[in-house]
């Protein structure tokens, strides 16, 4: 009886938690195709203005890669009404902060201000969309910035190239096969007209979502949105060709020699469903169970207990067309990457064969609940979630539904999805090795 009462109390607390965390929002379209999402929360005097464009590295010409990431930098260069070097000064002088990021499917710009500077944020983002200056000075300046970024993050960084190396083997036809930062040779050879064409194609209101979240008055905000973004002309419709990969049926073996490392690594990559599909949520749970953090099965077994691994890591990649689960490790001492691989396979086999324990299952649910709360604990986090859910998952209300999806996934479902996607013959095995020394 006590057990049933305790369970009822837990369920009641969980229900109250979900109700308390519900995010209300309103969404609509302007005549030019811009999708607008407004979230009003007057509990603190802050506001986030954010614009997500449906353009990432997958939208690039295979012979002109790196454009999406390049534009993340270029569109801070200035506009018709904002001089070069003034963007960050305007943000900081109004008590705000901002940034941008690019990935496979989207590019995201955002600012957070005291709420009395909301109009500044809307003006800035409308300027970025309507009046960008794509000129020689800005282009040449940002080419140097991106070159330095690649040197720091990829070329001269230990294990910095593993992401690119895995993608080029995981995909044969799909544009996910090149890295987000792209090719410096492509950027160097691109013309000013190439950059202007890319901007005209993708940085248009009908390829974007604007989110305004925080301490706002919705009716006044709608008026400002209409004033600043309404006059921006609609762009031409974007023709996106769906590219599907043939399933991997035989293990893809690859090697890469990195001059920046001394300890080899083994990386295993599985192609998994696009992030909006239910199986992608299950894969995220499997990834967390096996290899996320020091409490994961692989870390405890290989690092803590057997002490054969220096580090175990996972990089689950959520993307629109395909996602992926990447797991790997670094051996310690005289242990080999083959031993690491064998132990990873043994743990995956357990998930495919046996149900995970009820205790582990509850720990998993707790982790995802914490992630959900943390991701949406700030106005800027809520703005990001609303934009991504609308643009990449076609369901803005996932901000209120996603935790329920994870809670509905059963232990049996975890076992079946592991059987379906985590097969040895359906993966890339990348041996990431120190550079070979010249025998002479």
From TrEMBL:
Residues 190-366 form the Peptidase M16 C-terminal domain. One of its GO terms (biological process) is proteolysis. Keywords: Hydrolase, Metalloprotease, Protease, Signal, Zinc. It comes from the Bacteria. The keyword Zinc applies. Residues 1-20 form the signal peptide. Residues 36-177 form the Peptidase M16 N-terminal domain. GO terms for molecular function: metal ion binding; metallopeptidase activity. Pfam families: Peptidase_M16, Peptidase_M16_C. Belongs to the peptidase M16 family. This is Insulinase family protein.
């Amino acid at each position: 009886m006590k057990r049933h009462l305790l369970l009822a109390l837990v369920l009641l607390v969980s229900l109250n938690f979900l109700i308390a965390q519900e995010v209300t929002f309103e969404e609509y379209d302007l005549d030019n195709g811009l999708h607008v999402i407004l979230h009003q929360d007057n509990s603190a005097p802050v506001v986030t203005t954010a614009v997500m464009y449906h353009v990432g590295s997958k939208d690039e010409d295979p012979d002109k890669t790196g454009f999406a990431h390049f534009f993340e930098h270029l569109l801070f260069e200035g506009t018709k009404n904002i001089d070069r070097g003034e963007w960050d000064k305007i943000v900081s002088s109004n008590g705000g902060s901002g940034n941008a990021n690019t990935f496979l499917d989207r590019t995201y710009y955002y600012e957070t201000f005291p709420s009395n500077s909301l109009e500044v944020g809307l003006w800035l983002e409308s300027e970025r969309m309507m009046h960008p200056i794509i000129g020689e000075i800005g282009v040449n300046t940002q080419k140097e910035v991106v070159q330095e970024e690649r040197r720091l993050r990829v070329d001269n960084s230990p294990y910095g190239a593993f992401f690119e190396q895995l993608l080029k083997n995981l995909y044969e036809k799909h544009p996910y096969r090149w890295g987000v930062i792209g090719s410096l040779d492509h950027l160097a050879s691109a013309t000013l007209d190439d950059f202007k064409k890319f901007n005209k194609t993708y940085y248009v209101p009908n390829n974007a979502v604007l989110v305004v979240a925080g301490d706002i008055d919705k009716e006044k905000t709608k008026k400002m949105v209409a004033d600043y973004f309404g006059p921006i002309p609609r762009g031409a419709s974007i023709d996106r060709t769906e590219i599907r990969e043939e399933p991997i049926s035989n293990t893809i073996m690859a090697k890469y020699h990195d001059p920046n490392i001394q300890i080899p690594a083994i990386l295993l990559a599985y192609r998994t469903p696009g992030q909006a599909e239910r199986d992608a949520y299950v894969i995220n749970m499997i990834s967390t169970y096996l290899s996320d953090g020091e409490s994961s099965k692989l870390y405890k077994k290989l690092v803590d207990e057997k002490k054969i691994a220096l580090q175990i890591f996972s990089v689950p990649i959520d993307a629109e067309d395909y996602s992926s689960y990447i797991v790997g490790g670094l051996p310690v001492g005289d242990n080999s990457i083959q031993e690491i691989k064998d132990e990873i396979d043994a743990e995956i086999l357990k998930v495919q064969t046996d149900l995970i324990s009820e205790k582990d299952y509850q720990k998993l649910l707790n982790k995802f609940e914490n992630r959900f709360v943390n991701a949406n604990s700030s106005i800027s986090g809520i703005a990001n979630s609303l934009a991504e859910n609308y643009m990449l998952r076609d369901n803005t209300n996932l901000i209120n539904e996603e935790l329920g999806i994870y809670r509905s996934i059963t232990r049996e479902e975890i076992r079946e999805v592991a059987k379906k996607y985590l097969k040895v013959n359906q993966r890339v095995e990348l041996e990431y090795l120190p550079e070979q020394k010249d025998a002479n």
